[in-house]
């Protein structure tokens, strides 16, 4: 009995500690500290960025390098060979509406190799190469069940196919486990062990972006896929990885971040909800070692997340939030999108502007180069979100379903 009482007391203390620790984070706009943001339109040597040439040949590269060195780590490009093996196929999947392919992507480097599994449903009622959505997922693999015996709103493959898009996904465990104890076991230990010795070396999120790029390598070989109309999608930590993918790899037409928060779409300097210190402490394997020096010192960052959005220009960006997900800072995500896409407007001359205030819940904003919505509800990726992503893709690609 004494042991049970002691255990109950210990658990109560732990609960109170965690609750108080969570409550210590800021959720009030009045407590957001004053801050100034680094300017995407001024180079590191003080040159004003005014033209497409200035952006593409100077400033964009600077920004990518800063994020590599300070936040996400390098993203290595070297590999010796890549092979695609069709391991399973069903041309009558989803009651004949889809062609299922399960592909093993084998990557070799320095006489070692890894395999990642790509699941792909291609609509059969489309008479030309299909545009594709790739989901980077860290959730339970049953969310992406290729047999479709289990169907979940997190990846509504049937709905995606019904709209005329191919639905693709891979699980991050194939490239880097979402676990501090085992994240090194896949591509890092096998293909890129030198990255682990670097303070600016690739870690978990960078590995997931690397995986998305390998999926794109496959899309470019499949005649049933329109690789020029491909969107990369990520939720939460996957959304952080999708933004890094879109910034690194110019082959993606649309980059979509769903409730990615700190280290994703939200401005770090706002210190609203999750902070740099909290995310580095809780998930030390996501970011490069150098990111730790900005714990409680976000103002010293040479970049902020609006510049990650900017680095994706002129390609399209979509940022989605949820009304009850204050931990991910919906306002900070919106501001980052609005400020980052100034490059789309001011450098590339794209039409459309953002409102000065945060849009109302479930009032999607779809501009020619950017999309945004705040969904009612909690932290999740839902069919509502997917429908808005597909609406935006229809608009961008000029698809008319009538």
Explain this structure:
The chain is 32% helix and 20% strand. The N terminus is likely disordered. It is an alpha/beta fold. It has one domain: Rossmann fold (3-Layer(aba) Sandwich), CATH 3.40.50. It is globular.
Element layout with pairings:
Layout: H1 2-23, H2 52-72, E1 81-92, H3 93-96, E2 98-109, E3 112-123, E4 130-137, H4 157-162, E5 166-171, H5 187-190, H6 204-219, E6 225-235, H7 237-248, E7 254-258, H8 276-282, H9 305-310, E8 316-322, H10 330-340, H11 342-347, E9 365-366, E10 370-375, H12 383-397
Parallel strand pairs: 4-5, 4-6, 6-7, 7-8, 8-10
Antiparallel strand pairs: 1-2, 2-3, 3-5, 9-10
Helix pairs in contact: 6-7
Compose a concise summary of this entry.
With 402 residues, the protein is of the alpha/beta class. It has helices at residues 2-23, 52-72, 93-96, 157-162, 187-190, 204-219, 237-248, 276-282, 305-310, 330-340, 342-347, 383-397; strands at residues 81-92, 98-109, 112-123, 130-137, 166-171, 225-235, 254-258, 316-322, 365-366, 370-375.
Salient structural properties:
402 residues; alpha/beta; Rossmann fold; 10 strands; 32% helix; 20% strand; globular; disordered N terminus
Principal-axis shape equals globular
Strand content: 15-25%
CATH topology name, in short, is Rossmann fold
SS-derived structural category: alpha/beta
Mean pLDDT: 94
Strand order within the widest sheet? 1-2-3-5-4-6-7-8-10-9
InterPro entries: AB_hydrolase_fold, GCE-like_dom
Domain 4-O-methyl-glucuronoyl methylesterase-like: 105-344
Organism: Cyclobacterium jeungdonense
Keywords: Hydrolase, Serine esterase, Signal
